[in-house]
Specification:
By secondary structure, this protein is of the alpha/beta class. Among the domains are: 133 residues, Rossmann fold, CATH 3.40.50.720; 113 residues, Jelly Rolls (Sandwich). It has eight helices and 19 strands. The chain has a six-stranded antiparallel sheet, with no helix packed on it. Strands 2-1-3-4-5 form a five-stranded parallel sheet, sandwiched between helices. Strands 15-14-17-12-19 form a five-stranded antiparallel sheet, with no helix packed on it. Helix 3 links the parallel strand 3 and strand 4. The chain is elongated and about 85 Å long.
């Protein structure tokens, strides 16, 4: 399949290009600011699908709304219709309009006129025209300090720069660029079109929050390097927002240090903490060193020896029953500590031992649930 992307150098265009480049069955033709409308008939040769992403949203001269949104779309419609007549083959189009098209401002009016031109093309030719009235799109490669609060907040907060919020309670509706691109590609691949009552293409998920909450959450991401507590970034808005924030880190901030506690036995390092799923750490032990010698009432742990040899010893604190096992970095084996059993771990090898550790709760110095009881 051969596709044309207008606005290929923009935020959504770059992300779409990257995803399509990972497909061997798609050839991409790009229309950028270096092109003019006169190039469209040539660029459309052999094209099966058009992603019309080009547009103007913050011009210095309002007249540019007409040239960048209305006139360019009209030229595209003319070129597409001429191509379809010549080839006898329909070309489908995805168009990124805006929720502003429902408002009577110069930008919204220009997008609405472009929508109408594409819907008229579809009515005349039977070609599919998928018109998306997108809310605020966010994600990697969006230009900061332009028209995206998310991009600006991520860029500035990652660099310790101030941000300006006029109304923290102002609502904002967001869509994540990867979700946008995924839906676009589904339509390219022939998925059924889903439209709302007004005939506009629909996109899910959409997230509703406030400007102040966005800023607060991004600051929490920044501060997590000090607190070591990560947010629940595995799904939904937090997943997309955290990924976006990290994408704005300058290269010199790709790495950061965490506290390392060392003594004659070795070192202990806390890596990551979660609000409700415990924390991750690692420790080392020199040959012959024993660590532990305590029990827990509720806390549980998982140990994974990734280097060296270890002997784990357990004793039930009531019955006195004992258990012992040996494991090493050559064996991917998790050893769990069990409430009510005192336990320790000894480096029985000749080299330094390195052990990964997960505990089901964040260590609380005021209530550690850790009681000395040497074996």
């Amino acid at each position: 399949m051969k596709v044309l992307i207008t606005g290929a150098g923009g935020f959504v265009g770059k992300n779409l290009q990257q995803h399509l480049s990972e497909r061997k069955d798609v050839e991409v033709v790009c229309f950028t600011r270096a092109n003019t409308a006169a190039d469209l008939p040539r660029l459309l040769e052999g094209v099966d699908f058009v992603f019309h992403l080009a547009g103007v949203n913050r011009p210095q001269d309002p007249q540019e709304f007409l040239t960048g949104n209305v006139d360019l779309t009209a030229a595209l419609v003319e070129a597409v219709e001429g191509n379809m007549r010549a080839r006898g083959r329909r070309i489908s189009i995805v168009y990124t309009s805006s929720t502003q098209a429902a408002h009577d401002n110069p930008y919204g009016a220009s997008k609405r006129t472009a929508e109408q031109a594409l819907h008229a093309l579809a009515a005349r030719t039977g070609a599919a025209a998928h018109v998306f009235r997108l809310p605020n799109v966010f994600g990697k490669w969006c230009r900061p300090n332009y028209n995206s609060a998310v991009a600006t907040f991520c860029h500035n907060i990652a660099r310790g720069l101030p941000i300006q919020i006029n109304d923290p309670d102002a609502p904002v509706t967001l869509v994540y660029v990867d979700d946008v691109v995924e839906r676009f590609i589904e339509l390219m691949d022939g998925a059924d079109a889903a439209v709302d009552a007004e005939g506009f293409a629909t996109l899910t998920p959409q997230y509703t929050t406030s400007v102040g909450e966005l800023a607060r959450q991004i600051k929490i991401f920044r501060d997590s390097r000090d607190t070591l507590v990560t947010e629940r970034v595995g799904s939904s808005l937090l997943r997309a927002l955290y990924s976006t924030y990290v994408s704005y880190l300058p290269p010199e901030s790709f790495a950061y240090t965490v506290p390392m506690h060392g003594d004659s036995r070795g070192v202990f390092v806390e890596m990551l903490k979660t609000p409700d799923c415990g924390q991750f750490s690692f420790f080392t032990a020199h040959p012959g060193i024993t660590r532990g010698g305590h029990y827990h009432h509720t806390k549980t742990e998982k140990f994974l020896v990734i280097k060296g040899e270890a002997r784990f010893k357990f004793r039930h604190i009531q019955s006195g029953d004992t258990h012992e096992l040996v494991t090493s970095g050559k064996k991917a084996e998790i050893v769990e500590t069990v409430p009510g059993w005192t336990h320790d771990i000894t480096n029985i090898g000749m080299d330094e031992m390195v052990v990964m550790l997960w505990a089901n709760e964040i260590f609380d110095r005021a209530k550690p649930d850790t009681y000395a009881c040497p074996l």
